[in-house]
């Protein structure tokens, strides 16, 4: 069931960012956001495995939960980027990215802190399985924030470079 949900999320993200103008269409960038969140989930599970935290069955819900939060962060950054680019067409790319981070990362950080605090409270549960689930969620949420702020930010920059040079995508597929 989880692979079907992940495929549905990927399709939703790519389809919802398609625009008539190819330069404004961000479907590849949305795919990069999903991949970034997925890499964060894999990284967090690997870190917890290295630290010796055992994987319990309920913790397998964490990838879908964290992937959804990472996609939400991606949509927030994309919407902010599109709004700032539309308002400031003659501003250098570095300034556009700086304004995007100023306006989007603060709200993403606040929601991440709220989510992390909720799951930290869950780690004091008397049920060991619930504690492990909350540990997985805390680590995964922190890692997905870091990945979305760095890796996805780099993808936005690459896409911005291509957008300002008149190319339609930052990969070499002509569509």
From TrEMBL:
InterPro entries for this protein: Patched_domain-protein, PTHD_SSD, SSD
Primary subcellular site in the record, as a coarse category: membrane
Any GO CC annotation of this UniProt entry: cytoplasmic vesicle membrane
Keywords attached to this entry: Glycoprotein, Membrane, Transmembrane, Transmembrane helix
UniProt membrane topology term: Multi-pass membrane protein
Database matches in Gene3D superfamilies: Multidrug efflux transporter AcrB transmembrane domain
Localization per Swiss-Prot or TrEMBL: Membrane
BP GO annotations: endocytosis; molting cycle, collagen and cuticulin-based cuticle
Keyword Membrane applies: yes
Domain of life: Eukaryota
Family membership: Belongs to the patched family.
PANTHER family given in the database record: PATCHED-RELATED (PTHR10796), SSD DOMAIN-CONTAINING PROTEIN (PTHR10796:SF181)
Name by which UniProt lists this protein: SSD domain-containing protein
Source organism phylogeny: Eukaryota, Metazoa, Ecdysozoa, Nematoda, Chromadorea
């Amino acid at each position: 069931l989880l692979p079907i949900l992940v495929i549905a999320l990927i399709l939703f993200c790519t389809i919802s960012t398609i625009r008539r103008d190819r330069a404004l269409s961000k479907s590849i960038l949305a795919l990069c956001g999903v991949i970034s969140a997925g890499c964060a989930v894999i990284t967090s599970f690997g870190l917890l495995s290295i630290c010796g935290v055992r994987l319990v069955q309920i913790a397998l819900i964490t990838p879908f939960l964290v992937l959804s939060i990472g996609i939400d962060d991606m949509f927030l950054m994309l919407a902010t980027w599109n709004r700032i680019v539309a308002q400031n067409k003659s501003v250098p790319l570095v300034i556009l990215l700086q304004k995007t981070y100023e306006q989007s990362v603060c709200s993403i950080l606040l929601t991440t802190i709220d989510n992390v605090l909720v799951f930290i409270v869950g780690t004091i549960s008397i049920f060991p399985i619930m504690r492990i689930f909350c540990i997985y969620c805390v680590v995964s949420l922190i890692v997905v924030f870091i990945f979305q702020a760095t890796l996805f930010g780099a993808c936005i920059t690459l896409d911005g470079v291509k957008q300002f040079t008149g190319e339609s995508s930052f990969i070499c597929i002509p569509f």
